[in-house]
């Protein structure tokens, strides 16, 4: 069901495109498009059903965007702002510089959108809250209401389609059992993408959070256990322990094959002698000196050991050479090494964020 009116002006002023694709009960889907002038006056509006089986939310949004851009180009508009309230769409049109080579429905729609945008002199995507696209939302909602011939409240009809789309890899043919739901916020991603996300965050030394834009929900080890390899589980447990021990209280076993994390405060309780502070590693059992942070120096006090070993060890020298080669920098507070992988030259240690 379509409705609209044309606008023949070829004014160079910036216009705005609002669009929305919705998926409702029984896979019914609809779209709404509104094009506004620089005073936010409506120049064109259109709505209609989306036909097809197993339409996903991402597909519906792309269809709405494609239709809106097509109509804007037909009106002779040269400069347009594209308002998005669905972050996967915003991310696609903001950062996609190349045509997608895959031959699936989503990839073809992405390429169509890119091709249409190239006909404008300028087109800028803007990410906004959902209530900012009220024109398009109401048009899409009206289509679905008309199609199912009954009035419903928005929260009842906007629900997950039978086939899901992962917002990270954009695979649009995923079954419910292939999706992972983040416990606290209920954002959905495919299990394979979540495995990679968790691994990257653990390698960065962080406890993983939900990857949804702006979401700060922490993920729990228990809810992700089925996605973890034994190595990743060990890393996660280590990160949790690191976060529970203040930076100034952390002590790592100096044995290269161990490097277990311990608390100096806890170790001090078990030190055999108050002055030399001898203790044992909680993991490998190696005798250690807390003061010198080295394996236990038998028959030597800490002062005597430092006097006999004023220079760094061979391993310390090798590590220093590697750090210089890789351009690592050491935090002056916690002594951890940091590496600049991208961005500006300013580096902030994660322990002091």
Automatic annotation (TrEMBL):
Protein name listed in UniProt: RBR-type E3 ubiquitin transferase
Function: Might act as an E3 ubiquitin-protein ligase, or as part of E3 complex, which accepts ubiquitin from specific E2 ubiquitin-conjugating enzymes and then transfers it to substrates.
Organism domain of life: Eukaryota
Lineage of the species this protein comes from: Eukaryota, Viridiplantae, Streptophyta, Embryophyta, Tracheophyta
Molecular function as annotated in GO: nucleic acid binding; RNA-DNA hybrid ribonuclease activity; ubiquitin protein ligase activity; zinc ion binding
InterPro entries in alphabetical order: E3_UB_ligase_RBR (IPR031127), IBR_dom (IPR002867), RNaseH-like_sf (IPR012337), RNaseH_domain (IPR002156), RNaseH_sf (IPR036397), TRIAD_supradom (IPR044066), Znf_RING (IPR001841), Znf_RING/FYVE/PHD (IPR013083)
Annotated ranges, domain RING-type: 162-353, 166-211
Keyword line: Metal-binding, Repeat, Transferase, Ubl conjugation pathway, Zinc, Zinc-finger
Species of provenance: Arabidopsis arenosa (Sand rock-cress)
Family stated for the protein in its record: Belongs to the RBR family. Ariadne subfamily.
Cofactor requirement: Zn(2+)
Catalysed reactions listed for this entry: [E2 ubiquitin-conjugating enzyme]-S-ubiquitinyl-L-cysteine + [acceptor protein]-L-lysine = [E2 ubiquitin-conjugating enzyme]-L-cysteine + [acceptor protein]-N(6)-ubiquitinyl-L-lysine
Pathway the protein takes part in: Protein modification; protein ubiquitination
GO biological-process terms attached to the record: protein ubiquitination
EC number annotated for this UniProt entry: 2.3.2.31
SUPFAM superfamilies: Ribonuclease H-like, RING/U-box
């Amino acid at each position: 069901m379509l409705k609209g009116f044309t606008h023949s002006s070829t004014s160079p002023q910036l216009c705005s495109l609002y669009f929305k694709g919705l998926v409702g009960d029984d896979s019914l889907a609809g779209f709404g498009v509104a094009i506004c002038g620089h005073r936010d006056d409506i120049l064109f509006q259109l709505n209609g059903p989306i036909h097809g089986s197993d339409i996903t939310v991402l597909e519906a949004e792309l269809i709405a965007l494609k239709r809106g851009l097509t109509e804007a180009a037909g009106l002779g508009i040269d400069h347009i702002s594209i308002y998005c309230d669905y972050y996967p769409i915003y991310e696609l049109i903001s950062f996609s510089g190349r045509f997608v080579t895959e031959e699936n429905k989503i990839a073809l729609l992405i390429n169509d959108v890119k091709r249409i945008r190239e006909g404008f002199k300028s087109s800028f995507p803007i990410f906004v809250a959902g209530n900012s696209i009220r024109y398009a939302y109401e048009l899409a909602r009206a289509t679905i209401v008309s199609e199912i011939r009954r009035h419903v409240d928005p929260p009842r009809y906007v629900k997950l389609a039978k086939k899901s789309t992962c917002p990270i890899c954009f695979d649009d043919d995923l079954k419910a059992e292939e999706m992972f739901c983040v416990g606290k916020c209920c954002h959905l991603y495919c299990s394979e993408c979540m495995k990679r996300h968790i691994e990257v965050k653990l390698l960065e030394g962080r406890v993983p959070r939900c990857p949804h834009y702006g979401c700060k929900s922490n993920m729990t080890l228990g809810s992700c256990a089925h996605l973890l390899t034994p190595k990743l589980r060990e890393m996660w447990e280590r990160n949790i322990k690191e976060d529970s021990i203040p930076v100034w209280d952390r002590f790592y076993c100096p044995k290269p094959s161990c490097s277990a994390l311990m608390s100096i405060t806890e170790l001090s309780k078990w030190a055999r002698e108050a002055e030399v502070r001898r203790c044992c590693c909680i993991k490998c059992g190696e005798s250690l000196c807390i003061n010198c942070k080295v394996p236990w120096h038998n028959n030597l006090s800490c002062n005597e050991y430092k006097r006999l070993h004023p220079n760094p060890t061979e391993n310390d020298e090798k590590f220093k050479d590697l750090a210089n080669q890789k351009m690592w920098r050491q935090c002056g507070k916690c002594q951890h090494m940091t590496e600049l992988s991208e961005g500006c030259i300013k580096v902030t240690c994660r322990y002091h964020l």
